Amino acid sequence: MSESLTFSQLALPEPLLRAVTELGYETPSPIQAAAIPKLLAGEDLLGQAQTGTGKTAAFALPLLARLDPAQNEPQILVLAPTRELAIQVAEAFQAYARFMPAFHVLPLYGGQSYTNQLKSLKRGSQVIVGTPGRILDHLDRGTLKLDKLRAIVLDEADEMLRMGFIDDVQTIMDATPAGRQVAMFSATMPSQIRAIAQKHLKNAHEIKIESKTSTVERISQRYVMLDSNQKLDALTRVLEGEEYDASIIFVRTKSATEEIAEKLGARGYAVACLNGDMNQANREQTIRRLKASQIDVIVATDVAARGLDVERISLVINYDIPYDSEAYVHRIGRTGRAGREGKAILFVSPRERRLLRTIEVATRQPIEKMSLPTGEVIEQRRIESFRETLANTIEAKNLSFFQDLINDWREKLETTDADLAAALLFMAQKDQPLNVAKQFPEIREPHARGDRPDRAGDRPARFERGDRPERSGDRPERAPRPRREMQGNYNTYRIEVGKEHGVRAGDIVGAIANEANIDSQFIGNIKLFDHFSTVELPADIPTEIFQHLKKVYVRKQKLNISVDAGGSAGERTERPAGDRRPSSAPTGAGPRPGAAPKRRTRE
Ligand code: AMP
Fold first, then answer.
1. 3-state secondary structure 212-255
2. For residue 319, is pLDDT > 60?
3. At 283, phi and psi to the nearest 5?
4. Helix, strand, or coil here: 282?
5. I need a labelling partner for 534 at 20 to 30 A (CA). Which of 85, 103, 127, 591 fits?
């Protein structure tokens, strides 16, 4: 963690500082502390950073600071591999620039109508965030002008490489003015990414947040994979289902400490927050109350909880993933004090999977996957806890007044002790109902690429084929073979865009990966013909996605995808596929069902 640095020390202009404060950011993350001064000084930068480290603000804040507000043409271009990331980055720019007058950011990705995009482009935007294919389309059409561009950012460069976008990225880079600033972020640094950096970056600073290895003993560590919008639900389950004396919940922002403390308070927890806005007296009072068991749950930011030493804390919940392994070790070190055992639970979204692995490597300890307590478990725990309180009451209290009342009521109401006890139990449990197993439906683990929920009406449901395998290091790009358990039937499909339209394999992979949300590893052999192309895809694409893909445009051509009727041996007319769901039956010279996709065609 950056121990003492503040955002104001980073010399960011006032409107940006105000936005960051309003968002509840207390201190810059390590990647921000390292990158912001360099980018503010106009230098090029190569940053090795994963999602979850705060990399978006690391480039957005300094580049916004260098923007000319009077100029309404694109000054910053961010290239991102997926539409989810493009939207996320555009939203981040909007949030950081909220106090910059007349600021406009425009996300441009495939699947959106060109008409709307053209309208927005005409209105003018200083920042464009887009997927490479769509940006290239606009450059080709002359609808996007980059001559006023001051900076270009390649976000998740290794991911763009993996998805086959890298040729497009190069073409776009070549179309930008020579003097522009370049920032490139990548979770891994394969040789192709280094080659691009060498070609396009001038005297680039390379930033890598080192993961110091340090071990943490006596602390059992587990993680839960979930979408961001499932976190609050998951938190309340963990607090109900886990045994602990006191717990500390770590979040990233001041606002989140307050919001979550309020929500837990409303659910009956003895909770308080600990953040950088509190003065020393307030902070000390909160810690005293925690030690005295007047509070059982603390919601804190990293900085506010630094050095906290309270033996009662036996559970640490990482609600927001820490920026790096060092912060993680600091956090979980709040438990297991004075030789006691401690537990740590980490919430991870699919996009943060890499950061989880980095933390595991740095701490040299596996973090075990856990499932959230089910409704049955929560019900059992509530029943046990009630029974315990009941036993204590029977043992410790003089109940003669109440026994007399029961004797009286049994007669007057002409009922039994069992009925009386059941009715009283029913009344006593109302605030914390006991019969709740069914009120806690299963929280399903997300599998898809992004961690954003689908936007209604924006696109068809996700097509999930399981988790993407981890990929590391300097491996050359290739169309990877699917993992064995994911091998299914593949069909050859025909799409109505070909060489004469200037299409490249990368365009097709990108469009299908983004539009159908099919991981690129499930996109097989692509053959380019003059007037059309063929592509191998899983045979069981859901109908709505298949229908959606028909309407997708690549290089200005509607894909009009159909099951390939006669193999790819040459040009021929299309067999109409109609509304039919693509069949998994062998089709012409296409691959046999069950055959794995072969290496992708490269031009
Ligand atoms: P990123 O790694 O850019 O995807 O950012 C991950 C999350 O961290 C986003 O939700 C950001 O809003 C949040 N974030 C980024 N920087 C900070 C900061 N300095 N303090 C608190 N939260 C931050």
1. CCCCCCCEEEEEEECCHHHHHHHHHHHHHHCCCCEEEEECCCHH
2. yes
3. -60, -45
4. helix
5. 85
pLDDT tens-place string over residues 563-576: 886 654 444 333 33
Closest residue by CA, ligand 1 atom 11: 54
3-state DSSP helix/strand/coil % of the chain, to nearest 5: 40, 15, 45
Please name the helix (run of DSSP H) or strand (run of DSSP E) that holds residue 560, with its range, or none: none
Given the CA of residue 7, which atom of ligand 1 is nearest to it?
Answer: 19
What is the per-residue pLDDT across 73-90, written as a single tens digit (0 to 9) for each? 999 999 999 998 999 999
Give domain 219-374's CATH superfamily.
Answer: P-loop containing nucleotide triphosphate hydrolases (3.40.50.300)
- Whether 349 is in the pocket of ligand 1, judged by its Cβ within 6 Å, is no
Q: Residue 5: enclosing H or E segment and its boundaries?
A: none
Quote the radius of gyration of the chain (alpha carbons, Å).
28
Name which residue sits closest to atom 6 of ligand 1, judged by CA. Answer: 52
Q: In this structure, which residue's CA is closest to atom 5 in ligand 1?
A: 54
**Fold of domain 7-208:** Rossmann fold (3.40.50)
Distance CA 213, CA 100 (A): 41
Spatial separation of the C-alpha atoms in residues 372 and 257, rounded to whole Å = 22
Q: How far is the CA of 16 from the centre of ligand 1 (A)?
A: 15
**Helices in 429-535 by DSSP H: which ranges?**
505-516
**How does DSSP assign 462-485, residue by residue?**
P----PPPP--TTPPP--PPPPGG
Q: Is the CB of 591 under 6 A from ligand 1?
A: no
Determine which residue's CA is closest to atom 21 belonging to ligand 1.
Answer: 25
CB distance 555 to ligand 1 below 6 Å:
no
For residue 323, the CA-to-ligand 1 centroid distance in Å is 8
What the block records as the tokens of 491 is: 């069909």
User: What are the angstrom distances between the C-alpha of 344 and each of 96, 173, 315, 567?
Assistant: 32, 44, 6, 55
Calculate the CA dihedral of residues 568, 570, 576, 582 and round it to 10 degrees: 0
User: Which atom of ligand 1 is least distant from the CA of 28?
Assistant: 19
Give residue-wise pLDDT tens across range 459-499: 332 332 333 333 333 232 233 333 323 346 778 899 999 98
| Architecture (CATH level 2) of domain 482-603 | 2-Layer Sandwich (3.30)
* b/e code 107-124 from CB counts within 10 Å (16+ = b): bbbbbeebeebeebbeee
Mean pLDDT of the chain: 84
Q: For strands 490-495 and 533-538, give the pairing.
A: antiparallel
Instruction: Report how far Cα 123 is from the mean position of its chain's Cα atoms.
Output: 31
**CATH 3.40.50.300 segments of the chain:** 7-208, 219-374
Which of 2, 10, 17, 25 for mutating ligand 1's site (highest number of atoms within 8 Å of CB)?
Answer: 25
